Structure formats: structure tokens, C-alpha cells
């Protein structure tokens, strides 16, 4: 039982990437002084993002994309979510750690 708990805890712990969204888009991740940057490095046919598209995630739970404009991101019980007008990406069983505590939590 404790082995299962350690494996599960490791799967949702903060990571440096790569990240995979629910639609199959794969992202690299880089943390910086303002938050983090997700860059699309691969995608499935149905994905809305192209390789090289960038999503900026701020420490104030804000987000920005040159294609989709201003948005937001939040932690969830099952991963994290990035939302823009016309785009909603879930990252199940994955976590980023760019803000302390429970900020950016829905």
C-alpha cells in the first residue's frame, strides 16, 4: 500500500516537463522570474496548437498567448488547467510549481 502511495504521489508532484495536455499536445516547460513558459513541441492531429506555440503562465494565475490573448491558469485536484477564450487545456495528473501554497487553486 505504501509503495502505491509513493508511486501515486510521484506522478502528481511538480515536474519540469515535458507536459501532455488532454488533447495530446506535448509541451516543454521553463520556469522564470515571472512564472513559467509552456512551448508546444508536438501534437496530435486534432490539437488546436501548432508546434512552437507558446503559453505564458504568470505567478498571479494569469496566462497569455499571442494567438489566444489573455487567459488564466489554475491548479486542480487532478492536475492543472489553462484557459483562454477559444482554448481550454487540461493537464491531468501533472503539476507545475510556480506559485507558493494554494494560490491559483480552483
What does the model show?
This protein is mainly beta. The protein contains one helix and eight strands; from the N terminus they run αββββββββ. The protein has one helix at residues 2-12; strands at residues 19-20, 26-32, 35-42, 54-58, 62-65, 69-76, 79-84, 87-92. An eight-stranded antiparallel β-sheet has the order 1-2-3-4-5-6-7-8, with no helix packed on it. Strand 7 (79-84) and strand 8 (87-92) form a beta hairpin. The model is unreliable at 1-13 (pLDDT under 50).
Q: Please count the beta strands (DSSP E, at least 2 residues each).
A: 8
Lateral arrangement of strands in the main beta sheet: 1-2-3-4-5-6-7-8
Helix proportion range: 10-25%
Write down the overall mean pLDDT.
82
- Overall shape: it is globular
List the uncertain runs.
1-13
Question: Over all CA atoms, what is the radius of gyration?
Answer: 14 Å
Count of runs of 4 or more consecutive helical residues: 1
Cα end-to-end separation? 29 Å
Q: Which secondary-structure class do the elements indicate?
A: mainly beta
> Strand count, sense and closure of the main sheet?
8 strands, antiparallel
Strand content: 35-45%
Structural features:
8-stranded antiparallel sheet; 106 residues; mainly beta; 10% helix; 1 helix
Quick summary:
With 106 residues, the chain is mostly beta strands.
Draw up the topology in text.
Layout (H helix, E strand, L loop, with lengths): L1 H11 L6 E2 L5 E7 L2 E8 L11 E5 L3 E4 L3 E8 L2 E6 L2 E6 L14
Antiparallel strand pairs: 1-2, 2-3, 3-4, 4-5, 5-6, 6-7, 7-8
Amino acid at each position: 500500500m505504501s509503495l502505491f502511495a509513493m508511486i501515486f504521489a510521484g506522478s502528481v508532484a511538480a515536474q519540469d516537463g515535458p507536459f501532455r495536455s488532454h488533447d495530446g499536445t506535448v509541451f516543454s516547460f521553463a520556469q522564470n522570474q515571472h512564472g513559467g513558459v509552456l512551448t508546444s513541441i508536438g501534437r496530435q492531429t486534432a490539437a488546436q496548437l501548432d508546434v512552437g506555440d507558446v503559453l505564458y503562465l504568470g505567478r498571479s494565475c494569469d496566462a497569455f498567448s499571442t494567438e489566444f490573448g489573455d487567459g488564466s491558469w489554475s491548479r486542480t485536484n487532478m492536475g492543472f488547467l489553462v484557459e483562454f477564450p477559444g482554448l481550454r487545456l487540461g493537464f491531468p495528473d501533472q503539476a507545475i510549481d510556480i506559485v507558493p501554497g494554494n494560490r491559483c487553486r480552483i
